Amino acid sequence: MPQASACRAAGHARRGLAIAGPARYLRGVQPDEKSLEHRRRRLLFRATHRGTHETDLLIGGYVARHLAGMDEAAVAAMEALLELPEPDLADWLTGRVAIPEGEHAALLRALRGDALRMTGDVA
Question: pTM for this structure?
Fold first, then answer.
């Protein structure tokens, strides 16, 4: 049977087809890392893989619900927010510490309000 595989591989090679691994489907195709769609997908992954389950739920849930409507500015703001330290985000979003005024205050309040609405604590 190894000879049959070798013959098949040689036939594919003559026709310019690769048969090794999933990369064969993406030959010459690289994702545009600057595109809004790519940034949205990356943002969703980062928001749901923060490190702690609680912030994954709070931030990831918000991003999942609002991602389709996010423009470039909203994606950039969320990307910047995700650079903040995990313990600080958890404290602000759970209400253990008041949200400080500053660059991220409006987005943090939106995240906190969304979390409260989802839990039914706020009408």
Answer: 0.69
